[in-house]
Amino acid sequence: MLRFTLKRLLTAVVVLLILTLVVFLMTRLIPSNPAIVYVGPKAPPEVIARVTAELGLDRPIFVQYFEYLGGLFTGDWGNSLSTKRPVLLELATRLPATLELIAAAMAIAALGGVTLGVLAVRRPGRILDGAIRFLSIGGVSMPAFWLGLLLQLFFVGNLKLLPATGQFSNALEYTNPITPVTNFALFDSLITGNWAAFGDGLQHLILPAITLAAYPLGLMARMVRSAMLEVLGQDHIFTARAYGLPERVVHWKLALKNALPSTVTVFGLSIAYALTGTFFVEVVFNWPGIGQFITAAMVAVDYPTIMAVTLLGAAAYLLSNFVVDVVQAKIDPRVRIS
Amino acid sequence: MSALLSVKDLRIDFVDRGRVTNTPVRGIDLEVGHGEIIGVVGESGCGKTLTGLAVLGLLPGGATATGSVLLDGGDQLAPNAANRRGEDVSIVFQNPGTAFNPVFTIGAQLRNVVRRHRDFTKREEDAHILNYLTLVQLPDPARAAASYPHELSGGMLQRAMIAMALLCEPKLLILDEPTTALDVTVAKQILELVLDLQRQFGFSVLLITHNLGIVHDICDRVAVLYAGRVIELGETAEVLKSPKHPYTQGLLDALPGNRDPNMPLAAIRGTVPSNLLGITGCAFADRCPLVIDECRRIDPALLESTNGHADACIRTVRA
User: Fold this and answer.
1) pLDDT tens for residues B193-246?
2) What totals of helices (H) and strands (E) does chain B contain, helices first?
3) B172 pLDDT more than 60
4) Distance from the B185 Cα atom to the nearest Cα atom in chain A, whole angstroms
5) Is the CB of A244 inside 8 Å of chain B's CB atoms?
6) Residues of chain A contacting B90 with CB distance shorter than 8 Å
7) A239 contact B CB<8A
8) B221 touches chain A (CB under 8 A)
9) Which of these, B46, B15, B9, lies nearest to B210 by C-alpha position?
10) Residue of A nearest to B101 (CA)
11) A244:B82 CB<8 A
């Protein structure tokens, strides 16, 4: 198991290194001069030449690459061309809010998806199965921004139950300010025992988290359902029934563990997918995450930011795939052999 | 003394949207005494596995059973039969490779069964499981308990399966072709193990097989099934030595050992009818070498001729 884990980890690191090269080349190949973006289109040629030298764009491309690579390790990810501040700093202030949102959404998706998927196969083709199918296909096919608006309309506009936008109420800054520990605001409010802020943050989190969770939840429910149906037809399930084990145990304990490996794959992919899916949700709910910052950076050809975000996204993909591999091997011993 | 298992007029219908589509078991009567080993033989599709499942109280979806199956007084066709499965009656399947769940250890799967039927502490469970894995002569019981199914051989898995079957001291053990998936030497060891354990614990055995050699080796009595009926029943030695029904005779003739090695094997011509709806007369008539006109009109009943030896052929001369 340890050997397996280390092998997968090494693969992930190698892929990440190759990715840095791809990301670097991509930004050099797009038909846009970063120096002009930096100083503006109307700058005189001598200024452009000076900035080109300052940014190191006049040096051989492989030298630029190794400088970029060195910077990645020393924490110098370049300055944003739009805000002129270090990219890493810009991301670090916004990423925690995004990650909290994604974590909440994926928790909802995993718990909800598995529960609905298992419930659906209790009596396939009956009312409950149909209702769950309706819900999961709805979740998969409804655009996030539209679902977000509908939820706002209903829970905020009609029921007046939850706040519409933002991560915390504005007044909180004066009444119960959060002491930053990890910069994950909601988590910090929890560990510092700031219950007023924690409760307020949870209320703000519910709607955007549900919106972001809708797609992976629907996907998970469908995946769990079909995997469960397949497993329930296998000999060993018949054995379990032949030994009098109750259906509750057969479904929730035995069949579910067989069905999980394929589901975990989908779950891992949808975590990485959520990283981009969150952009829309953050716009609709005015969430102080990386979404709006990145969207602006793309339009502005802010290449250090684009590179950083691409790399981050790829790293998230690799990380979730790595975790998926390890979890799969943990669940199914036969995976460890190959 | 009353029998441990008493099957009376068991019929199994497959029903699809209210219509009966097939009746693979058409009125089986069978009794198994305490400590008796009975063989149920027949070709594929004669209803022997379905009969075994009905005795277990677990029919596949779409199948409904009528008649009665009483196991030590308990109705196996009643919904509460699940409480007796794995406890009063348990089963060993044909393919040990797929009968165990691949993502749980053997020990964990045995523990599930113990937990279902016994109120043990975790330590008692461990000791109980280890005890039974030792009993089935697994070379390293502790290691077997910690192994996943793919880490053990077919023979070892079948031993573990037998251990699982005996965990709650069943009164009846159903063996559904227990050695078909194993090679000959391993099969022999498994059968010897079953015989050994049977002498030790005294449970009854319902052995489902198409192998008359195995029946000869271990069974006290044998029931020959054809097209969902018992067509011959009696002491093993008696039935194998002087079969009454032409089908039984055909099965015996088809064994390689009973023929001149230079002659081709005698097969029973034709095949088992795939659907048994609307059969009149004897179901074997179309394949029978001794068929007469009456066979197609009269539905033969299972009748005793000599002491305990019964058959369902109208041509048998009865005293």
Assistant:
1) 999 999 999 999 999 998 899 999 999 999 999 999 999 999 999 999 999 999
2) 10, 12
3) yes
4) 25
5) yes
6) 242-243
7) yes
8) no
9) B46
10) A236
11) yes
Alpha-carbon distance of A235 to B97, in angstroms, equals 9
Q: CB burial class (10 A; 0-12, 13-18, 19+) of residue A50?
A: middle
Give the containing element (helix H, strand E) for A4: helix A2-29
Indicate the residue of B87, B101, B102 with minimum beta-carbon distance to A244.
B87
State the pLDDT at residue A257. Answer: 95
pLDDT tens digit string along B247-273? 999 888 888 776 677 777 778 888 888
Is there a contact between A306 and A25 (Cβ–Cβ < 8 Å)? no
Whether residues A257 and B87 touch (CB distance < 8 A) is answered with no
Q: For residue B223, give how far its alpha carbon lies from the nearest alpha carbon of chain A (Å).
A: 23
Which residue in A has a C-alpha nearest to residue B81's C-alpha? A244
Query: Could you identify the residue written with the tokens 């009444």?
Result: A175
B56–A contact, CB cutoff 8 A: yes
Name the amino acid, one letter, at A192: T
Given a cut of 80, whether residue A161 has pLDDT beyond it is yes
In order of A14, A65, A66, B264, B309, the CA distances from A61 in angstroms are 21, 6, 9, 82, 96
Q: What is the mean pLDDT of residues A181-203?
A: 88
**Chain A, nearest residue to B59 by Cα:** A242
State the sign of the Cα–Cα–Cα–Cα dihedral B260, B46, B27, B173: positive
Q: Which residue of A has its CA nearest to B90?
A: A243
The pLDDT assigned to A338 comes to 56
| Percent of residues in chain B assigned helix, strand, coil, to nearest 5 | 35, 25, 40
**CA dist A211 to A160, A215, A279, Å?**
18, 8, 12
Tell me which residue in A240, A254, A333 faces B148 most closely, judged by beta carbons: A333
Chain A residue numbers with beta carbons less than 8 Å from the beta carbon of B116 are 243-246, 249
CB A319 within 8 A of CB A12: yes
A232, A236, A327, A331, best to mutate vs chain B, most B CBs in 10 Å: A236
Share of chain A above pLDDT 90, in %: 35
Residue of B nearest to A238 (CA): B99
φ, ψ dihedrals at B175, nearest 5° = -110, 110
Task: Note whether B102 contacts A: Cβ–Cβ < 8 A.
Answer: yes
Position A254 scores a pLDDT of 95
B33-42, B52-61, B108-117, B305-314: range with lowest mean pLDDT: B305-314
B117: closest chain A residue by CA = A244
B235 forms beta bridges with B221
Q: Which residues of A119-139 are buried (b: 16+ CB within 10 A; e: fewer)?
A: bbbeeeeeeebeebbebbeeb
Nearest by Cα to A268 from A8, A69, A50, A34: A8
Phi, psi of B89 (to 5 degrees): -135, 135
Q: Is B108 on the interface with A (CB under 8 A)?
A: no
Tokens of B124: 């008692």
ipTM over 0.85: yes
